[in-house]
Amino acid sequence: MREGLTARPKRLPAWLLYDEAGSRLFDAITELPEYYLTRTERGILSAHAAEMMAQAAAGARLRVVELGAGSADKTRLLLKAAVERQGTVLYEPVDVSASALEAARERIEREIDGVTVTPRVMDYTHGAGSRLHLGPVDCRERRLVVYIGSSIGNFEPHQAAKLLRRVRAGLRTGDGLLLGVDLAKEDSILLAAYDDAAGVTAAFNRNLLVRLNRELDAEFEPEAFAHCALWNAERSRIEMHLRSRGAQRVHVGALGLTVDFSAGESIHTENSYKYRPGQAEALLAEAGFRTEATWTDARGWFAVCLGRAV
Ligand code: AVI
After folding, report:
1. Over the stretch 198-244, which tens digit does the pLDDT of each residue have?
2. Residue 270 Cα, ligand 1 centroid: separation in angstroms?
3. What is the Cα–Cα distance from 227 to 238, expressed in whole angstroms?
4. pLDDT averaged over the chain?
């Protein structure tokens, strides 16, 4: 935090957005009319789940791992398709939140017969080592890692490549990766999705300051910062910032730090990369996956790619 608040321009890591209140606000974002991502991806999964599972299985039994599973809402479509194909399926959701995993386990086992859930509490983004430890797998099974929701878009391109290489290193040749990416599109659609009329995304962004006040004894006045979403066309990303409405000085007690803001100065809080045609496939190739299929919606706003570990 000290590094980010004393940097020029100022920045804070996006993971800070997801405390309990932030996670609730993010869930609310996924339901907003402007936030097309969740419903578009759900539409793609719902239309193609059976085909996705058949292609990923390639004649074997599948075991499904999900990174950043959260409530695993959309994944249920895939699990249902897997159960229809092979009768039963083992589902291994990975998330940092034990409570979210437990809720997902309870709901999935109650609602879908044939799914056994074995949750893993793990921070897959910061794990030590060069490979993701996914545990042993039956030699007659193939693993399918599901990484959907455009979460990969919140990583810088080099970090995204590194993460997928770690995933690949944890898999065997022939295993699969199902990756959901948001695609570049008209600015007005992107900007509305990250600056909604009801102000939910603004509250989500400002909640980061509320968290710093609580956890680091900081004295931010959240309303003294404006939520700002920008489209950076050159880098193909939406940026979220908190822009100081005026000149102000903020004390951060736990750091013994005083931070000065000039009017209009901002803290960069998140990037959300939007992929151009062929970029997701290139990222997969760089990480050791051959793209076998890419499914999109009719408007071409979102894509789900199936990569095969080679
Ligand atoms: C979690 N992630 C995919 C969201 C996104 O769209 O980049 C986070 C988010 N930030 C603002 N709105 C949603």
Report:
1. 999 999 999 999 999 999 999 999 999 999 999 999 999 999 999 99
2. 8
3. 13
4. 96
Ligand 1 centre to CA of 272 (Å) is 7
Geometric angle at alpha carbon 297, from 292 and 299, rounded to 5°: 130
pLDDT digits (tens, 9 = 90+) for 75-131: 999 999 999 999 999 999 999 888 889 999 999 999 999 999 999 998 898 766 788
Q: Which of 35, 73, 150, 179 maximizes ligand 1 atoms within 8 Å of its Cβ, making it the mutation to test the pocket?
A: 150
Residue 6 CA to residue 17 CA, distance in Å, equals 19
Going from the C-alpha of 159 to that of each of 163, 193, 287, the distances in angstroms are 6, 24, 11
Residue nearest to atom 3 of ligand 1 (CA): 151
